[in-house]
Amino acid sequence: MSPQPRARRFRSSGTAYRWDAVDVLEYKAEGSAPFKDVTRQVLFDEPELGVQWRYFEVAAGGHTTLERHEHVHAVLILRGRGEALVGTEIYPIAPFDLFSVPPMTWHQFRAAADEPMGFLCLVHSERDRPQLPTDDELAELRDASTKVAAFLKD
Ligand code: MN
Questions:
Q1: What's the 4 CA to ligand 1 centre distance in angstroms?
Q2: Helix (H) or strand (E) holding 137
Q3: Using an 8 Å Cβ cutoff, are 73 and 121 in contact?
Q4: Which of 80, 147, 150, 90 is nearest to 112 (CA)?
Q5: Separation of CA 5 and ligand 1 centre (Å)
Q6: What is the pLDDT of residues 33-91, one digit of tens each?
Q7: How far is CA 27 from the centre of its chain?
């Protein structure tokens, strides 16, 4: 029989978006994919649930990787503003907005220029590796609309 799961409580450090005993990690290995000024904290990694719950923080003017994959995301914005690309739609971001990212759907989250933006992201523990767009796929995305082209300008 597997050992009884241990109850845990990590205190939040209030408004700093940090939790006791939770390390602030690099978002991804530098150079492995394009992104700008993002940190990652793994809040829950629960085999019994089969999920991980992570908190990502994007510094002002920063952005996550433009990517797609078979696994899905549930995203809850906790702080800040910005814009998200999901599929070929651009959505403004505000605190407590919820996003679901379906399988194989391009997505990227960008913080506004003047404040950090942070969100919780729920994923399956076992998941496929993100794919980056080819030059052709990027050109196709840009052709979707002038809003998408403006979003993907840099
Ligand atoms: Mn993703």
A1: 32
A2: helix 135-142
A3: yes
A4: 80
A5: 28
A6: 788 899 999 999 988 899 999 999 999 999 999 999 999 999 999 999 999 999 999 99
A7: 9
Residue 121 annotated among the catalytic residues of the structure: yes
The percent of the chain in helix, strand and coil, each rounded to the nearest 5, is 10, 40, 45
Q: Return phi, psi of residue 136, to 5°.
A: -65, -45
Kindly state the tokens that stand for 95: 């605190």
Please choose, from the candidates 13, 131, 126, the residue with its C-alpha nearest in 3D space to the C-alpha of residue 68.
Answer: 131
CATH 2.60.120.10 fits 25-151, yes or no: yes
Furthest C-alpha separation in the chain: 57
Q: Sketch the domain layout of the chain as residue ranges.
A: 25-151
C-alpha 102 – ligand 1 centre gap (Å): 10
DSSP state of 111: E
The pLDDT mean for the chain works out to 92
pTM for this model (two decimals):
0.91
Report which residue type is found at 37. D
Which member of 84, 101, 121, 123 is catalytic?
121
Structure-block tokens of residue 62: 């920063």
